Amino acid sequence: MRRFTTLLLFLCLAATTSFGGGYQVGLHGMRNIGMGLIGTSQSYDASSLFYNPGGAAFVNEKWSFSGGISFIMARGTFQGKDVSYQATLKHEINLPFYFYAAFKPTKNLSIGIAVNTPYGNRLTWKDDTGTDWQGRYLIKDISFKAITYQPTISYKFKDIIGIGVGFVYATGNVDMNKAIPLQGANGDGNVNIKGNTSNYGFNAGIMVHPDKGWSLGLDYRSKIEMKVKGADATFTVPQSLSSQFPAANKVDVMLPLPANLDFGVSYEFGKDKQWMIGINLCYVFWSTYDSLVFDFQTKTTAVGRTAAPTLYTDQMIERIGAQYKINKTITIRAGAYYDPSPVTSDYMNPQTPSLTETGLTCGLSIYPLKGFSIDAAFLYLMGAKRSATYSPDNFAGTYRTGFSIPGIGLSYSF
Amino acid sequence: MKKILFIILSLAMFTACERKIDTFQVGQGSANFTTYIAVGNSMMAGYADGALYNSGQKNSIPNLLAGQFQLAGSGTFVQPVVTSNYGVGYPGAKPKLVLGYPVDCKGVVSLGPVYSDGALEPVAPVGYKVNNLAIPGAKSFHMFVPGYAQYNPFYARFASSATNMVVQEIAPLNPTFFTMWLGDNDVLGYALAGGVGDSITSPALFQQAMGGMLTALVANGAKGVIANIPDVTAIPFFTTIPYNGLILTKSQADSVNMAMSLYHLPFVYQKGPNPFLVGDPGAPNPFRIRQMQPGELVLLSVPQDSLKCRGMGIINPGTFFPYPIPSQYVLTADEVAKIQTATATYNQIIAGLATHFNVGLVDMNAKLKELQNGIVWDGIKMNTTFVTGGVFSLDGVHLNPRGCAVAANYFIDAVNSKYGSTIPKVNITNYPGVIFP
Q1: Which residues in chain B have their CB less than 8 angstroms from residue A4's CB?
Q2: Is A158 exposed, middle or buried (0-12, 13-18, 19+ CB in 10 A)?
Q3: What are the sequence ranges of the domains in chain B?
Q4: Cβ-based interface (< 8 Å): residues of B facing A
Q5: Could you report the predicted ipTM of this complex, rounded to two decimals?
Q6: What is the DSSP letter of A83?
Q7: What is the pLDDT of residue A10?
Q8: Could you report the per-residue pLDDT of B5-26, keeping only the tens digit for each?
Q9: Do B437 and A385 make contact, defined as CB atoms within 8 angstroms?
Q10: If one looks up domain B36-239+333-430 in CATH, what number appears?
Q11: What count of CB pairs under 8 Å joins A to B?
């Protein structure tokens, strides 16, 4: 017990770290969230379908279900460079969820489906005066969400190696508003872009149990290009400019969901494997996102094809987590992670105010019945204060964000 | 154990709500903004869209600066308020320009500046002392003309006495800080007149007047900044109509070529853009005309209907004689060179005075050159293009509110750099550009 307390404190102190730099969301299983979002080398329940399909075959029970939801409460502040001005991220609740179901027709084979929300971004900026904020010509509000559906098959050889692969079908929708710096009697112009799309990818992984208590996992989730063809682009501009901004235009937008390569190792020890500690290294191929292109179908001198440079850079997320089974009824967890921002200081767009983040997590599972658990987790995420510019628009300032993310889920295996 | 978890969770919940950033720390540095005054011409008065009107005046560069200086302890900044939102009614005054739908001589309706329809404010003394001493139309040496109020209605509105020189307004205000942007009209007046009917102030007189003003301004130990003179040939008033804005069809070009050969004039016309004709006393032909050259400028004041329908710049369809653009609507290469030479000389003088009087300097000339290439702030792209450039008002000479905000920030940069102060900049996104119907 004392050892655990020490460990927990150690993690809390060490954890000056991270969550979803960019628009990647890591909330895919309450047990994993409790342990610093690790999961590549774990096979406790059906969440392995997502974290590492190679691990699904190691789940012992014939049926395994897991589902849950997180409540992202974001706080953010922006201080404009050289101006006496602050804006805040409007408090919006974002609800990433997951649902996994796995079935084992034989001892070594598992089939299942994973449904979750690995990418998303939702924010609204406003300032204290309640009017449109200083960065409104870059972004006023955006809601972007991708849901993936992943049928998966997993097979293990003896009890040593498991491999698995899932086909990923992703759907996404986007709804965003930005102001246009052309004023009429009613103030700024505005453009709203709204559309949805779908595309495919895959998720493949391998898990190895080389020795008693040890587990290693490697997982690759492919990039998915979310091409929104013919999204509705609705311009609101002064009457005299309406010919330059056709009211019911269409626009093509492409947003890549970056590939991830995750490596994890964990060790279970103590009486009845009471303890588990693990680490994850997650390499995110962010550099695929080098520009955000809007290609309007009806082109005029004012609207055409624009490519806003984003120049994201690949990043490595480092995670550590631990769990301790207090007794048959209660398991507790803690973890931490460090998620460096993929955005360089010259390309910081308030559309995705991506800061280097430090995450600190705690979690708890309660088993009222054998095989059935109520899982809760809490993630506290601090974005490091950062002064940066979006140079193409010469928009500069200091950003600071924080997230409180409680979540709850249920798991049932039998 | 649960207790510990509970404490950690509560702590995390609590701290998550506090993601604050320190607000901007304002500091006056070695300057004292207690009593701020502004000196200058129309650019500082808030003149825009061809008029001095209420909202333009509220967005004047000095008024925007005063708002920022007030964060560092500056007192009330008083302007000679124009109540009318259309302009001041001196003889010959027109109400402000707005964007509308003028119909040209060919019956074509297009988006363009038109005079607004509203009541001008009669010229009358405001009856109080003002901090913004900027006077539309004033040249540097006008500051030392006794009874200048008789010649300039804008000064008459706030002159302390009918016989005063403008420079005499300064001492009673006892300023601690000043901004001066004066001297544009010493060359702009000549340029706006197409080089006809106005003259460029001599460098000696310019130096004497500008130096005299600074002497008066710093007399009580006031600190301040001065701005230099932008090359006015870069502003939309001179760059909107191209020297080769004569667009001809193939058959029109053929007819014109035939006419020119009849007059033994060596000018050749083609389908598409062609140079306008202008008068030139030295031209080797009996008409004393020639085609405009690249770099020569047509003024925005040129009668557009004459260009479009009456053959101005080419051939008068009534008389079939060549019809050059009258010289008051054109800046020839010689005139442009005179303007640019004078501007460079003035700016040397201003730089010398800034050093001599130990005041800050705003290099507006360099800033206007930057603007020509395009600048961007907070996602607003701006340049010197008429109307769509987003900086100049509809008169093509003066700044609109957004342009004033940009210029005010150049002043703030100079103030902060000279006096080690930390005055926050104006938030440019709060100020509109040209208002579209």
Answers
A1: 1
A2: exposed
A3: 36-239+333-430, 246-291+297-331
A4: 1, 4-5, 8-9, 12-13, 15-24, 26, 71, 99, 101, 111, 375-381, 390, 424-427, 429, 432-437
A5: 0.91
A6: B
A7: 40
A8: 565 555 555 554 557 888 899 9
A9: no
A10: 3.40.50.1110
A11: 128
